[in-house]
Amino acid sequence: MKLVNKFLFVSVFIGLIFVLGCEDRTDLNQPQAPSTGQVSFERFVVLGNSLTAGYQSGSLYQSAQQYSFGKQIANLVNAKFEQPLASDPGLGSRLEIASLSPFALKVNTSQGAPINLNYAAPYNNLGIPGAFTYDILNATKTADSYSAKAGSPNPLFDVILRGQGSQFKQAKALKPTLIFCWIGNNDILGHATSGGTIPYTDPNTFAFLWKQLADSLASLKTKVVIANIPSVTAIPFFTTVPPVTKNPANGQIIPLYGQTKTGVRALVLGQDLVTLQATSVLTDASGNPTGVGLSPSKPLPDAVVLDKDEAAAVQNVIAAYNATLSSLASANGFALVDVNSFFNNVAKNGIVADGLKFTTEFVNGGLFSLDGVHPTNQGYAIVANEFIKVINQKWGSNIPLINVSTVPGSLILAKKIDKSKLDTPIIPKGVLDNLLF
Amino acid sequence: MLKKIKLFVFIALMSNQIFGGGFQINEHGAKAMSMAGAFTALANDPSALFFNGAGITQLKGTHLMFGATLISPKASFRGVAPEITEYKMKDQLFNPINLYATHQLNDWLYLGFAVNNQYGLGTEWDNNWIGRFLAVKTDLKTFYFTPTMAIKFFDNFSMSFGLVYATGEVTINRNAQIVPFTGEANVDLKGTGHATGFNIGALYKASENFSLGLSVRSENTFVLNGSATSTGPNAIVPLLPKGDISSKLTTPLNVTFGAALKPMCGLTVTGDFQYIGWSSYDKLTVDFADAKYEDLSANRDYQNTFIARLGAEYNLFSGFDLRGGIFFDKNPVKDEMVEPTLPDANRIGLNIGVGYKITDNISVDLSYLFLRFNERTVTNSQVSYTKGFAPFNGTYNSSANLFGLDFSYNF
């Protein structure tokens, strides 16, 4: 080989290495925003209560608000969605897990603070924990809210409304292209969680208030999605503590005695419901039985018992509410998310979402946060998917569902571990007293 | 009431590809490496103990060779589809060593001893990255000790037989979801063990200018024992897997056929075809000694594969050799099973190197290998990056730079 050839051989080879060695990566295209069909998320507003606010575990706090169902939907379609964020542990009494085994809750006694009180426009998420149907059109501040009239003013109205008018008025000011309005749960829920001791909104009053609300929403001439009221008696708040217990003497299953509508009697498994509140009546702070409920002379108080008559009444009220919502939706062309049917099915069969199985069981089920009423991040994602399905069907959009398995967990594990030994939930007295629904 | 809190802890090692093509190291001598590893029919330096033990019958007297290969891999993942966010694998430098000694006992019997790292490497990703439930740090180290005996049956035909004793050390570290609770746990699995095996080589010199070689390296089954440790939020820790674990991992059978040709004075051209029986690796299991924790089992379903190699050496002037080569390495991992503990893909290797004889009995070999992985876009992933089902679709890009240096001394 001539010298020239030798160098040719070497240089071709080195050249080849440089050519192939450079980064020849294919450019990938940014994902296209999903097709939203006839619906625009440009000015997207959510009205409602704690469920729309993204409330979890007894508090309204930023790390949970980021997974409110409105926010999760807005993220899917790259929509702007400003929320009245509160720094962790939020506004309220946030429940945290002190110990998993035994299972014990505690309240985080710190309070968060609002983060963006000075946001110039109304928030996109105007849901106020504790709001009733009445409040959407009428409450402009804490002092004139429905709960204030009932004697328990709720400071969150001032924090979220900021003196700029009612939820509806602020929504209107945003000239919304799409409104979600999910309200009415509290009109019955407070009655149920108080064991039937707080009155509910009469179904006729509910129909009257919602007719006004529906007319107002229709007057905006925009796309409106409403959702009906889920059955409240299948939530962990009512299903975690059974109306029976083990006899400490011989381990036999014995009924608990409770104050019912028809007087003190032995409660019946499968008929009467005992609320999560009962745990702090049944056991003391360190988890030892108090003796309450074990005899007719020391019955569970009425406030922690939703007896079978009360439970049936609650179901009837919800059915009446939902009949109203259904007729208003069809009369006004609103999309209706049938959360009631969906949740009944979940309560009965559980649900498998993206490879994960969820049930309504307290904590284990993964759907409900520590207050036993409000969803977890995953629970809100599942709710969001129900809204998306309805929107896709109604307005020909093609928004992908949220992959529930990619949503991070949200039940807060407190750092301190409780050393007590019971295998029943230990929920200190008062922990659940300040819940807003 | 709550009798037992079951955790949604995602420790399922449902997709762990600890031994992929990427963990097989074939660079165990700078001279062979610079000829793209096409060395089976040439095998004329002490690294023959790895490539084809029969080759040591060409080495008169006593030969010593030692060196190392520096490996600097790079990889990125863009996804998860439809997102195209880019995540880069952390830079790491690996340095498998090689150490060979051969000795001619008499006219027909030759002995050798080799130490090298035939399987190894690792990947490390940021512990916040999107695939952290699949892989944070994965690491494998093996040491192979191979005493070999080679017999020259005829002037033109030799065979070798070697026994393999290997030690291995595996680390798997990844995060675990603890949904519905906030936070994440981290699970760390470590195991060490050893394996045995054998190898056989044959070299046939059909003529002065043409030779054929065959090399067989057996499967090695590592029986690994170790422990699992987990960290996470205090309240969760008692529920996280820990304690003694055991596992078995089988490296593939390698059968390589090679030819070497001297078409003209000073030039040698070599070609190898290496079959790799990766289907030995069909399943990964980890058994927990504590029955409380579910044992893990995952299908790997690796495919048998091959590497085709072409190399050349040219004697530029006395004592100075120029070498080069190219190879194609078909990866054993199906598209739907690719994942970030081993972002594997078909590769092309480009090799260059030089050899210089400093004195009659001291020589040095240098080599450089650029390894280019085909860009690989996965659209049908069966690997979930969550505890549920969230396909880890996206685009992998990988490359590696390797430098080899060996010193030889004979007397």
Mean pLDDT rating of chain A: 89
Chain pair with largest interface:
A-B, 57 and 49 residues
| Helical residue percent band of chain B | under 10%
State the distance separating the first and last CA atoms of chain A. 89 Å
**Strand order across the largest sheet of chain A:** 1-6-7-14
Which H/E pattern describes the elements of chain B? HHEEEEEEEEEEEEEEEEEEEEE
Q: What is the tally of beta strands of chain A?
A: 16
Largest sheet of chain A: 4 strands, parallel
Portion in helices of chain A: 25-40%
- Total helices of chain A: the number is 15
Taking all Cα atoms into account, the compactness measure Rg of chain A is 26 Å
Low-confidence stretches of chain B: 1-20
| Percentage beta strand of chain B | over 45%
Protein structure class of chain A: alpha/beta
Oligomer: heterodimer
Number of strands of chain B: 21
Percent range for β-strand residues of chain A = 5-15%
Annotate the secondary structure layout.
The complex is a heterodimer of chains A (437) and B (411).
Chain A: H1 3-21, E1 44-48, H2 50-53, E2 59-60, H3 62-65, H4 69-76, E3 91-92, E4 94-99, E5 104-108, H5 133-138, H6 146-149, H7 156-161, H8 167-173, E6 178-182, H9 185-193, H10 203-219, E7 223-227, H11 236-239, E8 244-246, E9 253-255, E10 257-260, E11 263-266, E12 273-274, H12 279-282, E13 305-306, H13 308-332, E14 335-337, H14 339-349, E15 351-353, E16 356-358, H15 377-395
Helix pairs in contact in A: 4-15, 10-13
Chain B: H1 30-34, H2 48-51, E1 62-79, E2 86-88, E3 97-104, E4 109-116, E5 120-124, E6 137-154, E7 157-177, E8 184-207, E9 210-217, E10 220-231, E11 243-251, E12 254-264, E13 267-276, E14 283-288, E15 296-299, E16 305-317, E17 320-329, E18 347-357, E19 362-373, E20 376-378, E21 394-410
Give structural attributes:
heterodimer, A: 4-stranded parallel beta sheet, two-stranded antiparallel sheet, 15 helices, globular, B: about 400 residues, mainly beta, 2 helices, elongated
